Amino acid sequence: MKQASETFLFYLGHPAHYHNVSVVIQQLSEKGYKVVLVARGKDVLFDLLKDLSYEIIYLNPKKGTGKLSLIATVIKREFVLFKLALKYQPKMMIGTDIVITHVGKWLGIPSVILNEDDAKEVPFLAKLGFKYASAVFSPNCCDISPYNSKKVGYKGYHELAYLHPNYFTPDKEKIKDLISEGEAYFILRFAELTAHHDEGKKGITNDVAMQLIEKLSPFGRVYISSERKLETQLERYRIKINPKNIHHAIYYAQIYIGDSQTMAAEAAVLGTPSIRFNDFVGKLGYLEELEHKYQLTYGIPTQNSTKLLEKVDELLGDSNLSATFKKRREKMLEECDDVTKLWVNYFIANKKK
Prior knowledge:
Elements: E1 7-12, H1 15-30, E2 34-40, H2 45-49, E3 55-59, H3 67-88, E4 92-95, H4 98-107, E5 111-114, H5 123-128, E6 135-139, E7 151-154, H6 160-163, E8 185-190, H7 206-216, E9 221-226, H8 232-235, H9 246-252, E10 255-258, H10 261-270, E11 274-277, H11 285-292, E12 297-300, H12 305-316, H13 321-335, H14 339-350
Parallel strand pairs: 1-2, 1-4, 2-3, 4-5, 5-6, 6-7, 8-9, 8-10, 10-11, 11-12
Helix pairs in contact: 1-14, 3-4, 7-12
C-alpha cells in the first residue's frame, strides 16, 4: 500500500469530467493512493458525487458572463487551487482546467489535461492550459497543434474510460421506471452551450424539439435530458432518473438525438444510434472519426433541420438498426486501446517522485 501522502488531485468542472475519471480514481484508490476531488457546481455534478468515499472539496458554481467575469473567476480559482495544492501536496493534478497547469508550474507538480477537443475549438484552454501542462491526453484523431509536443495520444475516446464493456455493464433494473415491456424510447439531450468555447454556437431550438417529439412519439416514449431550463410544453418530457444511471438509459434507448458532444459520443461508444445537431459538426476530430470511420453517430449542422428530420425518418424505418450498430460498436472496440489502463499506468509512472 502507498502512503496516504501520495495523493492525486482531480479537478472536476462538469458532470462529464467525473464520468471521465470515475473508474480511474476507483483503481487508483484500490492501489492505495489517496484521491482528492475538487468540484465546481455544474448541472448534476454534485449529485454524481454524493456518497462517494473520496475527500471532496465543493466550489461554488461559476457566476457572471463575459470576458472580465471569466478572468475574475479564473483568478479566484487559481488562489483556491494553490492553497489546496499546498495543503494536500498531490503527486499529480488532473482535469480539464487551465488552473491546474498554472499551479503545477508554480509548485513543481505534474499536471495532466484530459482533452478531446481540437485546439482550434478551445483556444482559451489550449493557449492558457495546454501550453503549461505536463501532458495533454487526447485521442490520436484530435489535433492540438501547436502543442502536439505535450500530447499523449491513444486509440480511443474519453468515453471508453468509463463505458468500455470492461468497466460498464448495462442494467435494465436501474432504469425499470423508464421502460414499459416491449416499448421503445428515445432520448433528447439539450446542452446549455454557455461555455466560453460555445459562444455563437446553436443547438436544438424549442421548435425543432417539438418537431422531433411529434415524429418520435408514435414509435415510443420521448425523454429529455437538459442542462438548460425547459419551456412548459417540454418540461413534461424531462427524464426523471438518478444521474448516475443515465448511461444505462442511453444504452437501451432506440435513438439518441442532441446538441451535446459528450452525450453523442457516449451513445456512439455504447452502440446506440446517435445524432448530434449543433454548430460543432465537422469541427471535432473524435466525433468525425466516430461518424466517418465507425458510422456510430451522425452530425447535422443547425442550418439544416430538414436533414435532421429526414435522418430520424431513415433510422426509424431501419428494422436492422440495433444489430447494425452493435456490429459497428464491436469493430470500434476491437481497434481501440484500454483507455482506463493507459491513463492509470501513465499517472502512476509520471507522478512527482
